[in-house]
Amino acid sequence: MEPVLITGCSSGIGRATALALAQRGLTVWATARRPESLDALADAGCRVLPLDVTDEQSRIAAVEAVEAEHGSVGTLVNNAGYAQGGPLEEVRLDDVRRQFETNVFGPLRMCQLVLPAMRAAGRGRIVTMGSAAGLIGTPGASAYGMTKWALENMADSLRYEVRRFGVDVVLMEPGGVLTNFAGTETSTWPATDGPYTAFRHNTHKQMERFFREGSRVVSKPEDVAALVVRAVTARRPRTRYKIGVAPRLMP
Ligand code: NDP
């Protein structure tokens, strides 16, 4: 459903998704905190805008720019997000809050901002990047998992509220994906010496092995992007799309 507004397009899944949608001829508004990171997408035919999902002025300006041209956002892809690892006992509350600002409150506000025009148009779609980490507990990633768990519930609840207005709400649920994000989950873990030092070391090595040495369940950003293209273009999208998630791990 066009036009498509995507957050977090400087790299990884967001960039691959913008590219894949533009290559199919869709009108794509690719956004990122650093506009210069979008030059290649502009060359590929995307419209580009600065957007920091934690900044209210920036959020409003981006949505207004798209609506000024098209009336309403056709599909919002809530993709921007990051993870900072650490055992629950040691994580700093401010770091957890920051993850919630980006991974939960940012997408929540983006939904609130695009919905009035979508309702008025009687059509719209919101595709949100959840994660397998929002479905299962992961040692060393509780804070990130909490944000994705919250995001999954936000999308599932919102779906019931806005269906009556012709707005679809879709969840993407990837397992590990080989992006900038990959492997940084534990490298950004605060390096304190203490009872979890060995655990941190072992977890980091496991993550490195999982992402860098390859595993049949690790996806490429292009694989996830292809699935987002389906979520955006399907006449009747599924409520959730999983990729690279081993069924035996699911609740
Ligand atoms: P990347 O790190 O490659 O991409 C993350 C994107 O989010 C970057 O463009 C980054 O921009 C952007 N971003 C971060 N904070 C903000 C902000 N405040 N405002 C706007 N953009 C922001 O990782 P991925 O492509 O892997 O991540 C994309 C999404 O996929 C995330 O939501 C992630 O949680 C999710 N995901 C990733 C998985 C994986 O294993 N890689 C697995 C499951 C889900 P900048 O360059 O400015 O930092």
UniProtKB/TrEMBL annotation:
Matches recorded under InterPro entries:
KR_dom, NAD(P)-bd_dom_sf, Sc_DH/Rdtase_CS, SDR_fam
Protein family membership = Belongs to the short-chain dehydrogenases/reductases (SDR) family.
Q: What's this protein's name? A: Short-subunit dehydrogenase
Q: Output the Gene Ontology terms for molecular function.
A: oxidoreductase activity
The alphabetical list of record keywords is:
Oxidoreductase
Stored PANTHER family:
NADPH-DEPENDENT 1-ACYLDIHYDROXYACETONE PHOSPHATE REDUCTASE (PTHR44169)
Ketoreductase domain span: 2-180
